[in-house]
Specification:
The chain is of the alpha/beta class. It has a single domain, classed as P-loop containing nucleotide triphosphate hydrolases (Rossmann fold). The strands form two sheets. The protein has a three-stranded parallel beta sheet with strand order 1-2-3, with helices on both faces. The protein has a three-stranded antiparallel beta sheet with strand order 4-5-6, with helices on one face. The radius of gyration is 16 Å and the shape is globular. The two termini are 28 Å apart.
């Protein structure tokens, strides 16, 4: 399943949300394969330079997590991942909007503060467009 998804979605990704179930520790460690696949399938010469990773812990009931902060730090260390970690609740919708805003802001910052692989970055207050010789990508 991962190989089918990575070719289409990770290839030109500039933002990746890594979501795990805070009640199931194994779901955090399952993300290792997704991080590796993103890096291996990215068109960017340096995936971490251009791609913003965020790590989201989904807690259905706040304070009911089986994943410790130490587990999260160990995961980030093993993946060599510089990602912000946030807690959300998909049941109630708590924190989701704020964390999407963080992701979009971080993606915009990375794209406008670095040169891209083959193209140039154009931005306006409401849009971020990456133009390359062959394609144009738009977010927001």
């Amino acid at each position: 399943m991962i190989s089918q998804v990575t070719r289409s979605y990770f290839r030109q990704a500039v933002g990746v949300v890594l979501l795990y179930d805070a009640c199931r520790r194994d779901t955090l460690w399952d993300l290792v394969a997704w991080v590796k696949s993103c890096r291996n399938n990215s068109v960017w010469e340096s995936c971490d330079k251009y791609v913003t990773f965020v790590l989201w812990s989904n807690e259905r009931n706040y304070g009911n997590s089986n994943v410790s902060p130490e587990d999260v730090e160990q995961f980030k260390k093993e993946c060599v991942l510089d990602a912000e970690h946030f807690t959300i609740c998909t049941t109630s919708g708590d924190n989701i909007t704020n964390h999407y805003c963080y992701l979009i802001s971080s993606m915009h910052h990375k794209l406008t503060s670095t040169e891209t692989r083959t193209g140039k970055v154009q931005s306006s207050p409401n849009t971020v467009s990456l133009t390359t010789e062959e394609e144009q990508f738009t977010c927001c």
